[in-house]
Amino acid sequence: MLQIFQLYVFILAGFVGFIVIQRVPPLLHTPLMSATNAISGISLVGAIVAAGGRYGKLSTILGMIAVICAATNVVAGFLITDRMLAMFKGQQKGGAAPAPGQGVK
Amino acid sequence: MTAAIPTLAASMHSMAGVFAALLPQDGLSSAELGTRDLVIQATYLIAAVLFILGLRSLTRPAQARLGMQQAAFGMLFAVIGTLLNAHILTYQYIIIGLVVGAIIGYPMAMKVPMTAMPQFIAFSHAFGAIAATLVGIVEYRHSFTMGMDGMMPGMSSGVAAAIGFEVLFGALTVTGSFMAFGKLQELITGRPITFPGQNAFNITLIGVALISLGVLIYNPDTAWAFYTIVGLGFFLGVSMVLPIGGGDMPVVISLLNSYAGLAASATGFAIGNNVLIIAGALEGAGGFILSIIMSKAMNRSFANIIFGAFGSAPSSKGKDAGPAKEPKTISVEDAATQLAYAGSVVIIPGYGMAVAQAQHVCRELHELVEKHGGKVSYAIHPVAGRMPGHLNVILSEAGIDYGALLTDVEDANRVLQTADIAVIIGANDIVNPDAEDDKASPLYGMPIFRPWTSKVSFVVKRGKGTGFSGVENPLFTKDNTFMIYGDAKGVLGNLIKEIKALDEGH
Q1: Do A88 and B396 touch (CB under 8 A)?
Q2: Which residues numbered 277-316 in B keep a CB inside 8 Å of some CB on A?
Q3: Cβ neighbours around B103 below 10 Å, total
């Protein structure tokens, strides 16, 4: 039963993804890829449980490596997306670019 | 979309109930656990909604930045929510991991040059996939030992299937991304590396992996099957990316994007976490859409994309050229004079421009032409650069208004028809008329720009060689095409100097 619920979620989210992402203009395809990459860094959630669950020494170490990798993925992914999006300017009136990386945790 | 959210909410709500029943009851009362679990699920729901809204904001460049910052907060919520999880007993390794990850990630993101974006994304895919694979291994080991000790019923077939897919896609993405990284960084040759029987070999490997997966689903305690899948996944990543040429990297990166998403989604299935399933599905869909767009722009078939590696770059030489015409050249002085008096100029950049780091001088030239009353726009092909949309980022980095970027091939061709001058900088295959005229050409059918419909076109090119695909380009010998040989940065710099000299001379 659980798997059926999960399949529902997967398929619906896939549809939402298709509909939303299809409308992203080619202009922003690179930020789109880094954005989806950052979002899928949500594996971090699984890594955190693996690292903190006291499943044995090896599992904890593997879990910690997973946290490091996923956290790198998340931090780097969101920051680079922000850095890129800050570069896209519609009107050249705005003077200097705002400092990249603001507001992202 | 609005219809989907209540459904998601409903299924998440019922999931929360299912979960409360699954959690261990050590110490805490079930009511307390229930509340805590609701809070956790609420943070996941917020994260999922913010992720979707963040991606939606990317449909409008003006709102994209804010939307993605909100998505980043969504991620923060999800992490905080997870830390409340009753399964977590020690925090020190988590904190070490988070701090180390942030220390690695921050400088990486702030320092990487925009030209290296494809390598960076490949690297980032690999990291996410390592996490997914390791989580899969830890989960499998955990339920395996639990099952052996009789502490918990062993793993169900459904979970085994999810974990199997997770490590297969995860491992494949890890090595595949590292190979892509190596090719893009030119640590490995960009040429396809092939050997006879490669396809049969890869298909056999996939077959063995699927059989192992079947064994694992039939009997989740079959540890050898699990580790075979992990090993084959790592191996497949290498053997599937090696035969793909550097020019096909946009498709490969998109495909790895999709695989990384599927790995994350499978992780969600394995550990029963909806936000992982949703985020993974979003990435899976995104990567899939981009792969299709890229393949259409390269005129490669759908099956060709799905199996990525099974088609290497077109290598045939097209027709045998008859008596070769020599391309005409134009002096920098003459080209500068024409640019200074042009009413409308279309610049067609290719990856060569990024390699030469010519985007900043290009903007200077752009401003100079505009000062003389000309209008400048850019025709950006979907596959120009090494990843989808790569040149848009590079030109934006140089401060070029995105309003000047024509990203639709048909639109750009309409503008080219009325343009005075088309300037092709470091591009080749995307302006090759054989794609329309010569059925024998490997490029035939690929949508291309038609710079020859402008009054004149200038081709800035390093030397007389052929492009990435090794195909001759008849554009260069057209009557209204003039070559300017040299490094893109140097040539554009000289053009600027000449136009300025022209101003002073009058």
Answers
A1: yes
A2: 277-287, 289-290, 293
A3: 14
Average pLDDT over residues B369-378: 90
pLDDT of B173 over the 70 cut:
yes
Distance CA B116, CA A18 (A): 28
B371-388 per-residue burial string, b: 16 or more CB within 10 A, e: under 16: eeebebbbbbbbbbbbbb
Query: How far apart (Å, rounded) are the C-alpha atoms in residues B469 and B245?
Result: 9
Q: Can you tell me whether residue B505 is helix, strand or coil?
A: helix
Weakest-pLDDT range from B105-109, B251-255, B260-264: B251-255
The domain ranges of chain B are: 4-310, 332-505
The CATH T-level fold of domain B332-505 is Rossmann fold (3.40.50)
Residues of B in contact with A38 (CB under 8 A): 71-72, 75, 124
Contact B463, B485 (CB under 8 A): yes
User: What SS3 class is residue B444?
Assistant: coil
Reported ipTM: the value is 0.86
Q: What would the two tokens of residue B130 be?
A: 């390592």
Cβ atoms B380, B405 nearer than 8 A: yes
Separation in Å, CA of B455 to nearest CA in chain A: 27
The pLDDT tens digits of the residues spanning B205-249 come to 999 999 999 999 998 888 899 999 999 999 999 988 887 777 778
